[in-house]
Design brief:
With 410 residues, the chain is an alpha/beta fold. The protein has helices spanning 30-40, 57-67, 80-86, 98-106, 122-129, 141-156, 166-174, 200-204, 208-211, 221-229, 231-243, 282-290, 304-307, 321-332, 336-352, 358-374, 384-409, and strands at residues 20-25, 46-53, 71-74, 93-96, 111-114, 134-137, 160-163, 183-190, 251-255, 261-267, 272-276. The protein has a domain at 20-168: 3-Layer(aba) Sandwich (Rossmann fold). It has 17 helices and eleven strands. The N and C termini lie far apart (49 Å). It binds NADP nicotinamide-adenine-dinucleotide phosphate. NADP nicotinamide-adenine-dinucleotide phosphate binds next to α1. NADP nicotinamide-adenine-dinucleotide phosphate (NAP) binds next to α1.
Length: 410
């Protein structure tokens, strides 16, 4: 079963003793540590099979010890000795390398948090899905780079895909209110980021430290800059398209600066079902961890009287050209979102490195899409390797275009 049919059903992901066996891929990151926090509060409800990181060995070893995990993996082999040392005497098995991360995903956990960042998360997440277990999906790249491939594999192997991203988790919850054929619109909310009220000219000259100041959420730098450009909403539209098998024309973005309503589903009778909550990732993660039940959550409870008012604005496609590029890739389909995602990663890294102005991010993504389309390189990937090949090709195109776009962007 997949998220495309989110009717509640008894979860197969819990043993008869009521203990859930879990693995956390990307345990040292922002989503990973929020997951670890919830697991620590679980009072013996969870048995932790494996935890992974890239190279943050000391933090990973501490997490593995705290959670009494069986297996801890760093993807970077140069961090292995440090991990082994930090785990000495614990009885926890240590390993390193990409294959070991995949092995962690394949070990017998029945709930896997996929919170590795970037396209390197594709293979381990797919490995977990192929075991037919519950995958709590935070890694956006699985759906943005290879959404068709990933969702087909999840369906074929009987995996349950639960969305961790707060907007998709909200929509998943709202979709339980009516039959899928009666859904007329799915609305993803957006805070509008730090430049919501800035002019396009002012935004073109925005500095890195200004782009990194998200008004509501505390997240890693890549996703925070994506919020400032609104490419994050584009990635989320593509995610929603694959997760919920919904046509692009039924997907909408609504700017909601308070980030209290995370997503809404409108039904044909005019009813709109929304999910509200404090902007704290432990809410959607707790929902995925307990699904189809609920657990006590540590996030601040919503005090609407204190918040006072919730406001909404239409998104501005002129000031945020990312949104127009998002519509374009949704309409083109195939590997166009893969190209957009790869070009955006190159552009954001260049912006962080001071090699391109803020306005150049969308310019570079647009130019890379043009170049990929001229090469007829946006056909639907048939497997993960094809998706990764498009990703690689688009990164190379973006790097070639970077000097020209950068020169015009300051
Ligand atoms: N942060 C949010 O609130 C949020 C919300 C919705 C969706 N997401 C999505 O969730 C994913 C994770 O986001 P995040 O903000 O938690 O990222 P993050 O803080 O950067 O953490 C990334 C995790 O992945 C590991 N990692 C990085 N490169 C790796 C590699 N090459 N091989 C194996 N592991 C690697 C990191 O290990 P090290 O610590 O060793 O580097 C860390 O554990 C992203 O796809 C993001 O778009 C995040």
């Amino acid at each position: 079963m997949q998220v495309t049919n989110p009717e509640l059903r008894p979860s197969g992901a819990r043993s008869s003793s009521g203990i859930r066996t879990v693995t956390v891929l990307g345990a040292t990151g922002s989503v990973g540590t929020s997951t670890v926090d919830l697991l620590k509060r679980g009072n013996g409800q969870y048995r932790v099979e494996a935890v992974t990181a890239h190279k943050n060995a000391v933090q990973l070893a501490q997490i593995a010890r705290d959670l009494k995990a069986c297996f801890a993996v760093v993807a970077d082999p140069s961090a292995y000795a440090e991990l082994k040392d930090a785990l000495s005497g614990s009885g926890i098995e240590a390993a390193s390398g990409e294959a070991a991360v995949i092995e962690a995903a394949e070990r017998p956990a029945n709930w896997v948090m996929a919170a590795v960042s970037g396209s390197v998360g594709l293979k381990p997440t797919l490995a977990a899905a192929k075991r037919g277990v519950t995958v709590a999906l935070a890694n956006k790249e699985c759906l943005v780079c290879a959404g068709g491939v990933f969702m087909r594999a999840a369906a074929a192997y009987g995996a349950t895909v639960l969305p961790v991203d707060s907007e998709h988790n909200a929509i998943f919850q709202a979709l339980t209110a009516g039959p899928r054929e009666d859904v007329s619109r799915i609305v993803i909310t957006a805070s509008g980021g730090p430049f919501r009220t800035w002019s396009r000219e002012a935004m073109r000259g925005a500095k890195l430290e200004q782009a990194l100041k998200h008004p509501n959420w505390s997240m890693g730098p890549k996703i925070t800059i994506d919020s400032a450009t609104m490419f994050n909403k584009v990635l989320e539209l593509v995610e929603a398209h694959h997760l919920f098998a919904v046509e692009p024309e039924k997907l909408a973005v609504l700017v909601h600066p308070q980030s209290i309503i995370h997503g809404m589903v409108e039904y044909r009778d005019g009813s709109v079902i929304a999910q509200l909550g404090s902007p704290d990732m432990r809410i959607p993660i707790a929902h995925c961890l307990a699904w189809p039940r609920r657990i006590d959550g540590p996030a601040a409870k919503l005090d609407l009287a204190k918040i006072g008012s919730l406001t909404f604005e239409a998104p501005d496609m002129e000031r945020f050209p990312a949104l127009a590029l998002g519509r374009r890739v949704l309409e083109t389909g195939g590997a166009a979102p893969t190209v957009l995602n790869a070009a955006n990663e190159v552009a954001v890294a260049a912006f962080i490195g001071g090699r391109i102005g803020f306005g150049g991010i969308a310019d570079l993504v647009g130019a890379t899409l043009d170049a990929a389309e001229r090469r007829n390189a946006t056909a639907e990937p048939q497997d993960i390797d094809e998706a990764l090949a498009v990703d690689h090709m688009a990164r190379s195109l973006a790097h070639d275009l970077l000097p020209e776009i950068a020169a015009k962007s300051f």
